Amino acid sequence: MLRNRKWLGTLAGGLAMVLGVFSSGWAATPGTHYNYGLEGVTGATAPPPGWHYRMYNLWYNPNEFKDNNGNTAPGNTELDVFASAQRIIHVTTIKILGADYFYDFVFPLLDQDFSTVTPNGVFSDSHSFTLGDIEIEPFGLAWHQPRWDAVFALAVVLPTGHFEGDEPASPGLGYWSGRLTLGGTYYFDDKKTWSASVLTRTLINGEQEDTEVRPGSELVAEYGVGKEFTVNNIWMIRPGLTGASYWQFSDDSKDNLAYGIVADQHKRAHAAGAEINVFYLPMLFQVNLRYLQEYGVENGPEESRFIATLTKSF
Q1: In the CATH scheme, what is the homologous superfamily, with its name and number, of domain 2-313?
Q2: Three-class SS string for the chain?
Q3: pLDDT digits (tens, 9 = 90+) for 220-241
Q4: Which of 143, 160, 163, 279 is 20 to 30 A from 111 (CA-CA)?
Q5: pTM score, whole prediction
């Protein structure tokens, strides 16, 4: 039971959600197949062998968009997003290079409304409520040592969600993505109550439908520092400080001015905030609440975001 208590709040390790609509940037090719900020404290620590179900919920309502220089773009634009992703994870008893082998699947359900009024007074509105792009992560390795944990994983995102180049609220992004996950958690004490972690994702994208543009490659880093407190044999809590950063580090494959695509305009964003995990130990159940404020955004929306994550392990 002690081991279960220690990992209950650390389901991550290549296990962050893939929701294209949760983009941290909005530029030539809007959106990303990995939303930053969904993992925080101990984000690079995976659970022990077993089956795990996780539901991620995001509320994000920006009404200010930044241009390539980080200035507020002209016009009146509003984006209302609620998304809920269901994740199924299986950490096996198979050992590879001393690590636990795991795999998982993500099925995102998106409810989003995108409306805009241009400086010329032209109004447009786009809405969707349906399944987005599905992720399959067939290969992951998770290491556990007395003072550190580490993770390596490979995933693919399938363009299963509907996509139209002229519909900003399309639930899909219209292209495939491959993703590499690397991360680690360090514990400052023998009981592993103090921790610091960094989790990185690198995405390489395929060509997008309609636009025939391949979005540039992306890097996401999520990090956090937290302290765990055991209340009694039933409850445990872990408050912490958390943050995330997103960079598009290569150009799109080409310009496509018909869709507003400028190949060398990269997306960038950062966010900082706090979180609290509450663990109900008898049922191996946890609730994670996280608030993040974005800053330093280029070519995308800038606002606060609230994330509630529910996890049940078996």
Answers
A1: Autotransporter beta-domain (2.40.128.130)
A2: CHHHHHHCCCCCCCCCCCCCCCCCCCCCCCCCCCCCCCCCCCCCCCCCCEEEEEEEEEEECCCCEECCCCCECCCEEEEEEEEEEEEEEEEEEEEECCEEEEEEEEEEEEEEEEEEECCCCCEEEEEEEEECCEEEEEEEEEEECCCEEEEEEEEEEECCCCCCCCCCCCCCCCCCEEEEEEEEEEECCCCCCEEEEEEEEEEEECCCCCCCCCCCCEEEEEEEEEECEECCCCEEEEEEEEEEEEEECCCCCCCEHHHCECCCCCCEEEEEEEEEEEEEHHHCEEEEEEEEEEEEEECEECCEEEEEEEEEEC
A3: 999 999 999 999 999 999 999 9
A4: 279
A5: 0.86
